[in-house]
Specification:
CATH superfamily of the largest domain in chain A: P-loop containing nucleotide triphosphate hydrolases
Radius of gyration of chain A: 19 Å
CATH topology of chain B: MetI-like fold
CATH superfamily of chain B: MetI-like
Structural class of chain B: mainly alpha
CATH architecture of chain B: Orthogonal Bundle
Number of strands of chain A: 10
Oligomer: heterodimer
Number of helices of chain A: 8
Helix content of chain A: 25-40%
CATH class of chain B: Mainly Alpha
Largest sheet of chain B: none
Number of domains of chain B: 1
CATH class of the largest domain in chain A: Alpha Beta
Shape of chain A: globular
Amino acid sequence: MTAGADRIGETEPAPARAGAGLRVQGLSHSFGAGAQSILALSDVDLDIAPGEFHCLLGPSGCGKSTLLYLMGGFIPVQRGSVETARGPVRRPGPDRGIVFQNFALFPWKTVRQNVLYGMANLGVPKAEREARASDLLAMVKLDKFADHYPSQLSGGMQQRAAIARTLAIEPDILLMDEPFGALDAQTRSIMQEELLAIWQRTGKIVVFVTHDVHEAVLLGDRISVMSARPGRIATTVTSDFNSERDARVKRASEFARKVLDLSGLMHEQTLT
Amino acid sequence: MSRADPIAGGYLLRALEYLPLAILALAWEALVRSGLVSPSVLPPFSEVVIEFFRLAGNGVIFEHAAISLRRVVAGLGLAIVFGVGAGLLMASSRPVRVVLNPVLGLLYPLPKSALVPLFMLLLGLGDASKILLIFIGCLLPIVTNAFNGARGVDEKLMWSAANLGADRFELFRVRFNAALPDILTGCRTGVAFAFILLINAELIFGQDGLGYLIASTGGLGAYPTMFAVVLLVVALGFVADRLFGLIERQTLRWRTTA
């Protein structure tokens, strides 16, 4: 499929174009104006297949979060395009749910109210949203903490609440911005397994930003290694752990080899 | 979920809060009784308290207190409504910010009491001039706190709301809720300002109200009476501040839990 200039500006859903996937083409982004301007992303192309778990791996400052925010429509596209099955991305939308590193839960709402919030905005009938919230809270094992405020929960619990809140609006695509970066190693490892389970159950596209090589290898179908200044995708590799991926593979020598390969690659990208 | 603190020592601590006030009252009494300060300048605390109850008995002092409180509530209420509104608008709109910033900049160093004669000429000796003074004086801390609070809201929180289908009104509500701790801080500062400005205005040109009572009794040399009124003003301000603190804790319940 070739990229045509004619697609820009069209608004009607065009499922044939990006498939049910997520396509980034010629995406560049700079912050600031004039001489102070910093090129954060330079000419990024990326094609993510339906149901794919895609990791964006790179050192800090490589623009991986910027790329994610552009996919989410949180910052406006300057050059290039981001397209989903529903057409070009221009603004935030419930088809692309995001989870942030620092949870960004509404602190004045209880866990349940946080989960209900998006569904209420989107007009989900009351009975259905109550039921869906209860299901999700049970799934992320927070049913006993549904009426607690976020400040009463641990970091891992807050992040589970944030994931439930995002899943509640049933997005096609889950954008995750170093979601486990603020958690301790033990909690992170549990959360990784839980996320994999959720992903396998729902079949959503997951775009997962991380600077942790182990995490990327453990989670990703494919991993895009990014380089900094300007941010671009240096290489995209396929993980070999597609079939039976869980925490056990960490012990496998294959896993170790992959981690080493990627670490070398990361190292190169950080230094150059 | 455990509410309040169930420790018995909690009450002891609360009582301890008022200990400095008791010491202050005792020091006052001792200062006058020992002759270090002449009773003709500062009547002893006990005498002031007795005088207070005498005044309370005939009820006049409460008529004046009601008039004063009405002015505080009106001026402060207006300042909260307009101040919070302006602060939030400034945070979300650049043009509003550009227009209002210099006005606030001028208002900041201006001694509000200096406006008293002007307002008196414009609005007369009654309620309106005092309410306007309180309004203007309280506006500043309320606007600046609301503005800073609304500007400081975590961008990711707003993005989350937008992601979860929030429309413009909902986004505004999220920003308001996130800024609420700062907004309430500004309002609480406003409470203190309101009492200061009220007494200021009534002292300078009052026909009624507690400030007027202070000025008129002080002018006659009736110092025990004057200090009894001062004591009432202090007590009212203190109660108002405590009340506001209570509202703050109730509203921000989600923050104080651990």
